[in-house]
Amino acid sequence: MSAPTLDEALRSFERRLCERTGEHRSGDLLREAIAYHFGFGEFGPTRVGKRLRPQLLFRTAFHLGAPLEAALDAAVAVEILHNYSLVHDDIEDRDELRHGRPTLWARYGVAQAINAGDAMCAISFLALAQSEAHLGGQAALSAVRTLHEAQRLMCDGQARDIAFESREAVAFEEYLEMIGGKTAALFGAACELGAICAAADASTVERARAFGRAYGMAFQIRDDMLGVWGNEADTGKRVAGDLARRKWSFPIVWALAQPDSAARRTVAATYASGRSLDLHEVEAVRRALDELAARPACERAIAQRLESLQRFGDGDLYRFAADSLR
């Protein structure tokens, strides 16, 4: 039997994702809220994410010889857990726009959005449990542990990110630890699950996890860069929203680690205000970041992490990672 293509896998993935989250039934508000978030049925089509985590899982699994069915429910579980985190993150960050339309809490209210996110978390692990039929009990248990550990690290990273908002300074090492949990942990789990689905040995599983984590760090730095210099048409989110909320992103942390200058003092003084920034202040910070060459610094940091990925990934996996970060 020939190996599945990625296109075949993604088509099967979209069908299984819809099945696992449940089709919207009239009068069922929970299912309606979940369907709205994913853009299913009457709430679609809408611009969806790039499915990066499922793609990494599939590419890892197929490279190591796993059949599609062995990896399918794990890929669905990772994507649902990712979306649970997005729902809660939008509430915590007070973001009203995602993929170019109102976020779940903006549409249904905070209480319903929290509840829908909690349901997504439960559905994620129920989906992963279905993989036991293809993986066997021990491998399925390892998969569940992997995803739970990623969830724990995500929550830890998010707690740090929220706490940073009331800080006047954040060390570079603290920032890296935060994104290592909030973002990189699930990317690491996606690749690790791909290896588990292929019945890989412990060394290969660890290498897969390391690749995913390194990719996740580069991904978050790029996301931080787009949060300052991107455009809403591409990101589907309000540009410079992170600056307005005084989020400690890579450009800010890097800028404040530079030698003293007028531009650095502008960033430091504005971020020390202890409150949300108005449009004038946001633009002042962005100009200061430009003067400090913070954007090229982001690009260098991404390139350095891409270079490290070559130690872990095969050619196809590395090319996919590199292309997705451009």
Verbal overview:
By secondary structure, the protein is mostly helical. The protein has a single domain, classed as Farnesyl Diphosphate Synthase (Orthogonal Bundle), CATH 1.10.600. The protein is 73% helix and 1% strand. It has 17 helices and two strands. The chain has helices at 6-21, 29-38, 52-63, 68-93, 104-108, 110-129, 132-135, 137-164, 172-197, 202-229, 232-235, 241-244, 250-256, 262-271, 279-291, 294-309, 315-324; strands at 97-98, 101-102. The protein has a two-stranded antiparallel ribbon. A hairpin with a 2-residue loop joins β1 (97-98) and β2. α2 packs across α6, α3 (52-63) crosses α9 and α4 runs antiparallel to α6. The protein is globular and about 60 Å long. The model has no long low-confidence stretch (mean pLDDT 92).
Topology:
Elements: H1 6-21, H2 29-38, H3 52-63, H4 68-93, E1 97-98, E2 101-102, H5 104-108, H6 110-129, H7 132-135, H8 137-164, H9 172-197, H10 202-229, H11 232-235, H12 241-244, H13 250-256, H14 262-271, H15 279-291, H16 294-309, H17 315-324
Antiparallel strand pairs: 1-2
Keywords:
Isoprenoid_synthase_dom_sf, 17 helices, transferase, 326 residues, 2 strands, metal-binding, Farnesyl Diphosphate Synthase, mainly alpha, EC 2.5.1.-, globular, prenyltransferase activity
**CATH homologous superfamily - what is it?**
Farnesyl Diphosphate Synthase
CATH topology: Farnesyl Diphosphate Synthase
Mean pLDDT: 92
Largest sheet: 2 strands, antiparallel
Strand order of the largest sheet: 1-2
Beta-strand content estimate? under 5%
Helix content bin = over 70%
Question: What low-confidence regions span 5 or more consecutive residues with pLDDT below 50?
Answer: none
Query: What is the CA–CA distance across the termini?
Result: 35 Å
How many runs of DSSP E, i.e. beta strands? 2
Order of helices and strands: HHHHEEHHHHHHHHHHHHH
User: How many individual helices?
Assistant: 17
Radius of gyration in whole Å, from Cα? 20 Å
Shape: globular
**What's the oligomerization state?**
single chain
The CATH class, by name, is Mainly Alpha
Structural class: mainly alpha
Q: Just name the CATH architecture.
A: Orthogonal Bundle
How many discrete domains?
Answer: 1
Enzyme class: transferase
EC number: 2.5.1.-
Organism: mine drainage metagenome
GO molecular function: metal ion binding; prenyltransferase activity
